[in-house]
Structure formats: C-alpha cells, structure tokens
Amino acid sequence: SSRALRRPTLRRSRASPAHRGALLTPDMLVYGKDVSCLDGAAECLGGVGVALSSRWQRGPSNASLAGGCKLDAAVGRAGPPGAKANGSSGDHYLTGSADVQGADMSKVVPMIVRSAARSKRWDSLKVVFVLVGLPARGKSFISMRMQAFLSWIGVETKVFNVGQHRRQMEARDQDAQYFDVNNAAAKSSREALAFEVLDSLMQWLDARPQGAAIFDATNSSVERRRRVQERILEKDPQSLVIFVESFCNDSEVVEANIRMKLAKSPDYAGVAYEEARADFLARIENYERAYETLDDSGRTEDNLSYIKMINLSSHLVAHRVYGLVATSLLPYLMALHISARPVWLVRVGEAEPQQGGEAPSPRHNADRALSERGEVYATRLAAHFAQLPECRNARVLVCSHRRALEMASLIDHEGRRTSVRPFLNPMDRGAYEGVRRQDFAEKTEREFQESFARDPINTRFPGGESYSDFVRRVLPVLVEVEQQVEPVIVIAALSTLQLLSCYFETTDVREACDYDFPEHTAVEWRAGGGSFARPGV
Predict the structure, then answer these.
(1) Long-range contacts at 359-362 (CB < 8 A, ≥ 24 apart)
(2) Which residues pair with 523 in a beta bridge?
(3) How confident is the model at residue 364 (pLDDT cuts 50, 70, 90)?
(4) C-alpha distances in angstroms, 523 versus 320, 381, 391, 526?
(5) Residues 6+ away with beta carbon under 8 Å from 349
(6) Cα 454 to Cα 49: distance, rounded to the nearest angstrom
(7) pLDDT digits (tens, 9 = 90+) for 120-133
(8) Is 389 exposed, middle or buried (0-12, 13-18, 19+ CB in 10 A)?
(9) Residue 74 in this model has a pLDDT that exceeds 70
C-alpha cells in the first residue's frame, strides 16, 4: 500500500558501524544498510545509502517528485566497496539512475560513507574549530562558550582571536575603510595577521599531546577557508578541522549582537555610540560584499566538516560531523542563547545526625532528612528566592536526595516548576566514598594515587566513577540549564556543584575536587556575553 513520505527529524542513520552515515538535518533523508527504508520509498543497496532532498514534493511512495520523476526511480546503483566518485577520496556515492528523466539531480545529496581513514581522523586527539561569519553574528560568544564546555569535559582548549591580535599589531587606523574589500593594502595586512594567529594556534597545539584550538575570525570566503584548512593540515595532517559558521538573518538577534559588540569592543572604547554604530555598520557592509556562506548544497565545500548555526541555535546543520563532537558538542550548541538570566547553585542542607556515630553509607545518606540547622538554612533560602521577582518563575532542578527534595518543596510549594534529575546525584567514589582529596595519601592505595596523579580525569575510583564518567552523567543537565531562558535553581550535593562550578568559571575539571563550596551556601552565576560571572565578585 502507498503511504505518505514523512518528513524526517534530526537523526543519524542506523547503518552498520563500517558504513554509518552523517548526522542528518531535516532537509536530508537517508536510506542505508540496516535502515528500514521509510514507507518503502527506496531500495537498500549493499550497505551504501542514498540521501534524497526533502525539497521534493511530499506524497505517497512512487508519487511524482518536483522534478517530474518517480521517487523509486531515484535510486541508483552502488559501485563496489572502495570505489571513488566525483574525485572524492575515500567517499562512496550512489550514482544516479539513467532511468531518472526530468529530475534535477543537483537536489540529490550524496550519502557519505565513512572510510577507515576518515574514522581514524575522527579519533584525532587534536581538533581545530574554525569560526565563520560576519561581524556581530556571535562568533566570539560561541567561541567562549565552546572553550568553557570543552574545558569542562576535560579537553584543554584555547581561543585564538584574530581581532585582538590585529588591535595589538596594526598601527594604521582601523575604521570601516580598513575593512573595505577594495583596500588592497589593508586586505593584505589583515590576511597576514590572520595567518600569524593561525600559526600561533598550530604551535600551541603542536606542544600538546591533545587539545582543541578555536580560530576566531570571519573566514568569510571559500578561498580563505580553503587556505586555512590547507595550512592546518600542512602542519599537522592528523588534526581534525571543523568549521563553525554563525549565520544570522534575524534582525533582532543581529541588533542585540551589535549593542553587545559596541559595549565591549576595544575598537570603540571612548567613541560616542551613534558614531561607533555608524562605523560598525559600514564595516559589516564591507564584509557583506565578499561574504560567502558555507555551501550546504554539496557543490563547492562538500569536503569540509562543518557545523552551521542559523540564528544561533534556532536551526543547526551538521555536515561530516561524527564522534565526540556529534554526541557532546552538538547538543550543547543547540542549547545556546543570549538571554540573560541567573543560575543559582545551591548546596543541600545539613543532614540529621547519624545514630550510633558511624559514617552513613551512600544509600542511607541519600535518605537522611534535614537537620534543624539545615531546615533553618532551607527556610531562609526559600524566603530569599521569594523576594526576588525574577526567581518567582525559576526552574528548580534537584538531585534525588531527600534533603534536596525537602528544600525544593519550600521554594516551589506546588512542585510545578521542580524537576528531579538523578544525574545530579553526587559522584560515586566507590570504595573511597567520603575520603577527602587531602587524605588520599593515607587512606587510598598507592596504585590509585599514582594513577590519579597522572590522569585525574580518567582514573576511576575503585567500584565507582571517574571524573570523565561524572561529566558525561551530568552533561544532559548542563545542556538543560543552558536551554532555559528563565532563572534556574540547581540543588545538589557538594561534588556535583564543584563540577558545575568548573564550567561556569571556565576552570579545568581537574580542579573540581579542590573547588571551595562551603556548606549552606548558594552561589549565583549570571550570563554576561560569552561567559558567566558572579554578581559583586
């Protein structure tokens, strides 16, 4: 029977590991090995998938497409394993069928099949993120947030900003005329300065066994991006290069970015607002004359790996993006927005005394009620939030411990704004539960001490978690916090708040166990541009 071809959501094909496809956008539809071909509309061929653009007309299988062909006729024949097409090394495509008549084959997006060579590249320990976009599109905002996130998950990360280097090294005036595409001397100078920064980036990356570097510049033409990728791979062929474009056509978002830029940019320090605005708009116009967005049609830049963010996180396209970047960074980028709101980290109150004087087991500790002192703290904290107008509709995220739930009920009496997140439960230190960092020498095995000293992120506590495990567990809650446009109150135990604090401070997660977060403390973080700050600190 004929059934309507449904529009796909953002998903990844379920192909075999050797032939797994790219991350899909709603504008791509993929069929491949082990994938149930949607609505019987295509044939699965030899583990190689075919991607059909959903720009064709919606209708039953075998219905006529926009190009006048039948959907089932759009399936071609796959070449033998290892075959190459269109000059793409290591990429396998389905060729178009000669029986397709009247179809615009430019609308067929080739399914990229990951070769062994490409899979090795995606296991690379060194990654360069190359920003792309016009001025006032949030590139520096994205760079700073990416740095905070990647550092938090344990990847040493540094941002290399071309604008900062330009201001330090360029002696000539840097008004709008400096960015005119017809100003040959200034253009040559800007290009030279940009590649000086890129070389510094590669030197920094070369001095480390692993890491992520962020090249923050406009990189607004196909030719510039080609040269940047060539320079990186020339110096380190094993590095992974991912372009991240911030494309924005929402006038309100652009206007907000312009205001933020004029308020913070050293280029306009001491310049009257209207004068600064006029010059900056002229600068943007100069860039627009030569701007070429990343081509997602599959024609000119199909060989690049890129993430395209449209109006920040309103719409996101990922092309040739796999591995950790796909599973961790993409969900994070999709959560970003520029709304200012406070995030409160609240440590659970003191527990009632343990009878018998023995240290409670982790399970029993989770079920202990607030002590009298803890109840006083929780009551005063709830009264404080009630007095803050912006916190009256705050989302409350709590771990599943009894004390946290008791505190949440005082803040949100009806429980409508409260969500229990077991991912926020304390780190599981297994056999060393309750052992403080300063006591490791006396109370832990020597083998564990040596391993923890070498690699504190990946060393797993006996019978428990490593910090890497802990980060992966808490990560979905961090993404949820970033998604919120309303204030957020997070109530959790010490180890979880230490971990989250490293993100908000852009501190290496290795410092988590030493982060000072006293009992009966609530800390406010407030977004300000690309970073968070503690008001009054």
Answers:
(1) 359/434, 362/426, 362/428, 362/433
(2) 345
(3) low
(4) 40, 11, 14, 10
(5) 370, 371, 373, 374, 375, 377, 378, 403, 406, 407, 520
(6) 44
(7) 455 568 999 999 99
(8) exposed
(9) no
Tens digits of residue pLDDT in 304-318? 999 999 988 788 999
Tens digits of residue pLDDT in 259-294: 888 888 888 888 888 998 998 899 999 889 889 998
Token output for 192: 């030279």
- What is the distance between the alpha carbons of residues 242 and 127, in angstroms, rounded to a whole number? 8
- Among residues of the chain, what percentage have pLDDT more than 90? 45
Q: How far is CA 241 from CA 127, 131, 236, 298, in A?
A: 6, 11, 10, 18
Strand partners of residue 343: 488, 525
CB 140 within 8 A of CB 216: yes
Q: Which of 98, 52, 44 is nearest to 71 (CA)?
A: 52
- Average pLDDT of the chain is 77
What is the arithmetic mean of pLDDT over 15-35? 32
Judge whether residue 430 has pLDDT over 80.
Answer: yes
Q: Which two tokens stand for residue 220?
A: 């607004």
Task: Count each helix (H run) and each strand (E run) in the chain, helices first.
Answer: 16, 15
What's the rounded Cα separation, in Å, for the pair 86 and 93? 9
Torsion angle defined by CA atoms of residues 313, 319, 325 and 328, in that order, rounded to the nearest 10 degrees: 40
Least confident of 105-114, 178-187, 343-352: 105-114
Residue with tokens 């929402």: 250
CA 287 – CA 46 distance, rounded (Å): 46
| 256 has pLDDT over 50 | yes
What are the structure tokens assigned to 455, written together? 């690699």
Secondary structure (3-state) at 510: helix
CA distance 196 to 199: 5
Q: 257 by DSSP, 3-state: which?
A: helix
Which helix (H) or strand (E) segment holds residue 367: the answer is none
Threshold 0.90, pTM exceeds = no
Alpha-carbon Rg for the chain, nearest whole angstrom, is: 27
Could you say which DSSP state residue 62 is in? T
Contact 261, 136 (CB under 8 A): yes
Residue scoring higher pLDDT (240 or 170):
240
The answer on pLDDT for 537 being more than 80 is no
